[in-house]
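User: I'm new to structure prediction. If I give you an amino acid sequence, what do you actually give back? Let's try with this one:
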Amino acid sequence: MIFSQMQKRLTSTRVVGIGMINLATITWASNIVLGRWLRGYIGPITLAAARFLIASLFFTIILNRLKPEERRLGHDRWLLLGMALSGVVAFSPALYFGLRFTTAVNTTLITGLGPLVTGLLATLLIHEPMSRGQMVGSIISFIGVGVLISGGSLTFWQELRGNIGDFIILMAVMLWGLYSVLGHQVMRHRSPLSTTALSILLGVPFLLLAATWEVQKIPIFLNLWVILALLFIGIGATFMGVLSWNAGVRRLGASGAMAFYNTLPLYGIFMGYLFLHESIRPPHLIGGGLIIIGGLLALRVRS
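Assistant: Good question. You get back a string of structure tokens that encode the predicted 3D arrangement of the chain. For your 303 residues, that looks like this:
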């Protein structure tokens, strides 16, 4: 009886975690599309500063309602600073900077390496075991990403060429993996809301300082659509997305959460179908199926 209740609780925790991760990847799929579009209007550092500044306003309001110990930096202050530097100060500018030199296609393909990168970092840094199920699931999901991106065409792979943008996106994936690993450690003793809010608030001053320098090199061109895009990125992709991601990491672990990071290109394709009327072909369905199967395999009990 007790074992059955524990099993149900574990299953419920995983279901909620999967939902949180998928909510995050939906908003981040939109973030990549908007980040690519905004490259002609705002610099990458300034864009990152704007998104986190907007999000920090919401997090500050909510943070003030938490318990005093949740609002203060404790013994985990250095881990929180590491999260700020990797996931706030470095990751977002790297992502937007890479999108200035490479396509969204290459970007989504490279982010498919996220589960493997995060699993390896978790193993190396905090000795979190990466089970055979997680390894196999991550590889299957990565193959699914490849099928989605290439449309099942071998010609695509023969013509694919690397560039500096691809390298920058790869660095961004590694930075996000590090952020996830550090976040998993912090959230052992702190709520996802407190963890997310404090890591962002620690990182915003660094971004604002860097943005002050960047705007002298890359001017900002504002109009109504740019402002609306910035608000969506700040509230949706950052406030809701990052909070949902950390809540999922707390329930699934760093490498378990990253297994579902590969749903990002899947959502991108369906958004294209819904909003841009782009077609969905068999390779999209096959690739999407592999992504889902890979994610489920990665969440099997460690062996």
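You can read the tokens as a compact description of the fold. Here is one thing that stands out. The chain has one domain: 25-298.
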